Every structure is written in structure tokens, then in C-alpha cells.
Known about the structure:
By secondary structure, this protein is mostly helical. It has one domain (8-87). 74% of the residues lie in helices and 0% in strands. The chain contains three helices and no strands. It has helices spanning 8-21, 27-65, 74-87.
Amino acid sequence: MLTVEVDDAYARGIDKLISSTGLYSSRSEFLKDAIRKNLAEMIGMSDGLRLIHEETEKLAAKVRERGGPIKMTKKQREALARKFMKEKNIS
């Protein structure tokens, strides 16, 4: 069991969603579903970040083998990460 304090505005929003859609029987059911979805998303993101790290390490090893320096800007690293995530269909 977990006790969670939710801001009044969020609680009212949840209540409106529940009454207007009928998708959930209670706030608890809504929050349990939200936690499950967020956890699944975070696990997927974590796997994606691990893959990016592994591929970056492989690329760096190849560059070192060829005697080249590894000097990428933060912008270049972020662009490479976005490209990799797109190619691997990682959200």
C-alpha cells in the first residue's frame, strides 16, 4: 500500500475524467494505471539509454583504433543520440 498526496487541482481533474469517461472506477484505479504506464515508459527509456551508451562506446573504440581523437560537442552527442533513437524506434 502506498499513500500519495495529490494537489487539489489534479484531484479535481482526475475526478472530472473519471465521471466524464467512465474509464476508471476510482482515483486509485486511475493512479495505479498512470503509475504502470509511467513505469513501462521509464523502463523503455532506460533500455534506450543503455543501447545508446553501448553504441557510443563501440563507436569510440573504432575511432581510437584508427588513431583519431574523440572530440564531440554536447550538441553533436545529442544529435547522435536522437538519430540512434529514431533508427531504433525508441521513444
